[in-house]
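Supplementary Note 3. Input sequence used for the single-chain structure prediction.
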Amino acid sequence: MRIRSVGMIATALAVALTAAACGGNDSSGSGDKKTATDPASLSATLTWWDTSDPKNEGPAFQELIKKFNATYPNVKIDYQSVPFGDAQNKFKTAAAAKSGAPDILRAEVAWVPELASLGYLYNLDGSDLLKDESDFLPTPMSADKYEGKTYGVPQVTDSLALLYNKKMFEAAGITAAPKTWAEVKTAAAAIKSKTGKQGLFINSGGYFLLPFIYGEGGDMVDASAKKITVNSPQSVAGVKIAQDLVKDGTAVKPPANDAYGNMMTLFKEQKVAMIINGPWEVNNIKDAPTFGGLDNLGIAPVPAGSAKSGAPVGGHNYTIWSGMSQDKVAAAVAFVKFMSSAESQAFIASKLGLLPTRKSAYDLPGVKDNATIAAFKPVLDSAVARPWIPEGGQFFGPMDKMAVEVLVQNKDPKASLDTVAKTYKSEVVKDYSN
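The predicted structure, written as discrete structure tokens, is reproduced below.
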């Protein structure tokens, strides 16, 4: 595979920036002069793979494209909604074949190090996209770094929180969100007794068990020590807490298929009082006719274990394909700069309740007066950064299988986590110790 050098990429972006913002020769070599104050002189067709939810989130991003085109009328955005679960491998396949990859990819935070290590992303250092890098929140920005270089800019950030039904809490006489898993158990018992409804739903996905693992001081790996820790005593203890909550009836036993969809249906229909989920579902909950609107939605940090309260940092980044035609680079920079601006992030926050990644966005209307976003602030304060290594995106396949074994099939957490550790060692981080 031929990989462009970092120097070539940085130079191309710098030239593109000059052409787009300062006026200069067309990067295609036509010799036509661009007007410094006329964005209409920038012309290209860009493909953007948007991996957001096509029903709840996609329309808002398409609105932003219309706003972008009001300033850049000759930059056509070929918007394509690509299922999140398919996008990572689909992009890698197309990029490796040098055909069919999108010019812009909305990449999950864990994808960036891997795609950068493969040479599939532009190094953005020196480009206009990083001119105000200090305005981005440090933790979301850290997910765009690989070996000291930058390969994306943060779009949105998130973490898991305890989402709860305020009316059901009130009916059960609960006056504050539970702060520990023991308090969750007590609250669930009160809800069952007073309302006849279920207390908690834990999704049987590996990502959703991380708050339990972090809560006991565990993790999947220790990247600095190059050590697999997913089956450490702390990690096992965390998963055991989640399993016990299902076994004793505090939490609904998740179904074998579509546990996530089942969780959201029960929550929106006010049949379960508490779930562990993130801000990406706020718009979905808001629009549910059976829930009662955002006034009925409570948001709190995930309950703590014996060590701490902590949930994984998530989110998405804008990345640019390193194999794109050079005459598109200026337009790609302009598009990503617009989409990642504080104003665009504030627009998305007001529409969807997603959390901005720019500090300045939190001072803009639609954000500073948004109660939902304010409620997620303490959630972000306790969020735990995942290991930003190329293999990070491969951690959750084995974790998902483990979560189903433990929560649905009631298998031994230690044995299931030992299997995860063996898979990590043989297939994911082969040079790590365990």
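DSSP finds 16 helices and 14 strands in the chain. Residues 294 and 334 are 35 Å apart (CA to CA).
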